[in-house]
Amino acid sequence: MALFNRWENDLKSVISLNSVQKQALSEFNIDLNKPENFIEESNCPLCNSHSSTCIANKDRYGIELFTVICKSCGLLYSKKHLNEWATSAFYTKYYRSIYTSSLSAEDSFFQAQINHGEQIYRWLESHDIKLTAPLNVLEIGCGAGGILVPFKLAGHNTIGIDYGDTYLQYGRNQGLTLIHGGIENLLNLPKFDIVILSHVIEHFNNLSHELDLIKSICNHKGIIYIEVPGIRSIRQNYSGNFLLYLQNAHNYHFTKKTLCHLLSLHSLNPVHVTESIQALVINEPCKKAYTSDFIAIYSHLIRLEIFFKFGLTNGLFFTLKNAIPNGKFRTFMRYLYRRVCAL
Ligand SMILES: [Zn+2]
């Protein structure tokens, strides 16, 4: 059972869909969304615990999606996800149509990628990363590859890899070297100095395996740049609506702490991580040990839905907290929680 009634599966989308998205969703449901195409995670992909509890049963498109939280470490993840074959088919045929509502890459999309690449370039420089050309730069899940453009223009050797042929072809037409497929296709290439994972690791099917592959294709002390939508930034980036944040393509959801915990277990060193999440990671062992984030994340999700349903802001919350005596404030919050549960 989901944490709140609103998070139960009613097959309804929480966003308005255009005709391209509706068509793609309809074809996806007939073609791939079948029990035999899914595999079930029996244990937590981060800490291997088998103890989890249900959080939500749908995503923003009204697709059935079983999101659970590990009671041991606090990782939020999809209990069932598409198998390897169906994942490849999903990203080749449906992903861009459903998620970007466009069948092909367009100039505006490519330009937005270039702008994003410039932001990443500046962010790395602002964190004292020396980008002296030529470095070997890889972007995994590159789409049309626009993020690589600022790196290529600065004299670096750039390669992108993705499953979406139409978007790859657009980037190739702009002079980029882009490869179709997964990380396995890169094992025979020279190692990379910088690996960019912009909104990618939450899509992986086998988190441990993919991280080990990334580590193996990256130079020792090489840079891994990671961006994922953080659980603690849902209020800013998804209007506080947890269902808007959930997407069937995302198999894992992170806080700064759970991402650092995961990376440390793979001998990767997260040296600078924000809650939004942007992470600067070095390919070297991590000396810090991380503990569970379960209670903090579980409480955060409850508070998130209370804020969303009652239109609370941080400012209003703290004004009330300061104005109402402690005992009465806890009673007030419990009352709001019961109201939200009843909705
Ligand atoms: Zn766990």
Q: Which key phrases capture this entry?
A:
binds zinc ion; single chain; alpha/beta; 4-stranded antiparallel sheet; Rossmann fold; 343 residues; 13 helices; 7-stranded mixed sheet
Verbal overview:
This protein has 343 residues and is of the alpha/beta class. It has 13 helices and 13 strands. Zinc ion binds at residues 44, 46-47, 49, 70, 72-73, 75.
Quick overview of this protein structure:
By secondary structure, this protein is an alpha/beta fold. The chain has helices at residues 19-31, 84-93, 95-99, 107-126, 149-153, 165-173, 207-217, 234-237, 242-245, 256-265, 294-310, 314-323, 326-342; strands at 38-40, 52-58, 64-70, 76-78, 80-82, 136-140, 157-162, 178-180, 192-198, 218-227, 252-253, 269-273, 278-282.
Can you tell me the CATH class of the largest domain?
Answer: Alpha Beta
Tell me what the CATH architecture of the largest domain is: 3-Layer(aba) Sandwich
Q: Please state the CA-atom Rg, rounded to the nearest Å.
A: 21 Å
Ligands present? zinc ion
Tally of separate helices: 13
Give the strand content: 15-25%
